[in-house]
């Protein structure tokens, strides 16, 4: 039948997990409950299944691995990843991987034998660890007391090598450097290729500097395809005390890479040790600017999606698309970390067009694949000045034609400042956007100085209440009055009202009491990757409502 859907039943799911030697885990710290299902017996996790407390988890871990067990149990920010190697008393080494789904509420993931992940642990070109595995194992090594040194080496002029030799021959250079690095240090040293032209190692402090050993080994001439190559390295190093107070491995790696940037600023073949002065805005900004120039072309800037929920029913109404930068070394960067620089570099129009297309294409996929999602919308922020972009209206028409989205499914959010800079011109442009099929929202309403007389003339569908007023309405009488006034104004003008910054059920209830239509915020979910957003979408329709946290 057309409405039939094939669904994994519990028996089939368990059989599949058992056949793959994989178990699923869900950790709920507030309930002190760890739930495990799947191949728990084969993995030596039988005493923990189907559920246990954190104390049982620690007790069954090998004594030397109890600090790693804490990594699974320690509350982290939403989206934070977990990747640890953990030995249980009755089993071999297993990899626990997962992610925090909600702030302080749940983490979930898989556990499987270490051999299941072997292919992803190693960089295929050099045979060294890859970046993710290096960070995971460095985290474990740093639990050992004593002074550790983390060194990062960046091969100078790799781009020129690629141009002169071609990528295949340049890869031979990188492979040779990886072999030299492995031969230069004893087996106990942790070594990795962490980027296209970056190598890293972690070792206890030795009599001879690890950076000096690395430079001596890798800067020897080599001959590739008839060419004599003289590699030079920019090297950064940082020291840290191991033990319970050891810094996070990813943070230590960031510091070493910051030292590399400092070394590069002094020319090829430089070296630098990390110091607090490197945290200056100037140096970090310079490195970020260099990376940002090609980030759009490399597909590193992408849309994440924060749910928007109807407060009266809990039904999912749509998403707001929010840009994130998947930086190859710094991880996931939020807009405040790079949008000001985008603006200074004149990239906002290009970024705006990219976000609008990405969001529309993703929404079209969801609406086509999920019958219940047929009324979903997606909102995209227009950056300051983007309302004046000459091809904005034609872009909306082209995107709607390419994706097949109906009128109103794509919503553009405009700030008060953009409207009030030239209200008459804004009225014309907004009217054209409305005719092109875009819905329109006035973002952060209440923070600017817009004239209500102009508001009645502009073709907005939605008012968005700034998160500051929402978060402080319970403790600030002025904020509460502003929220109530904006909601009443929206009702009088037949506009939808969306409250930003909804952090818990109490806020949602207070907003609903004054007649607010919709809410979004961490109480429902942070900005989610497309894959996470689809899971959220599915769960919302299965459950009948999007859950809101009891407290935030």
UniProtKB/TrEMBL annotation:
Pfam families: EAL, GGDEF, PAS_PdeA
InterPro entries: Cyclic-di-GMP_PDE-like, EAL_dom, EAL_sf, GGDEF_dom, Nucleotide_cyclase, PdeA-like_PAS, Rev_trsase/Diguanyl_cyclase
Highest taxon in the source lineage: Bacteria
Domain EAL: 285-541
One GO MF term attached to the UniProt entry: cyclic-guanylate-specific phosphodiesterase activity
Sequence ranges assigned to domain GGDEF in this UniProt record: 146-276
NCBIfam families (alphabetical): GGDEF
Protein name, as recorded: Bifunctional diguanylate cyclase/phosphodiesterase
Record organism: Phenylobacterium glaciei
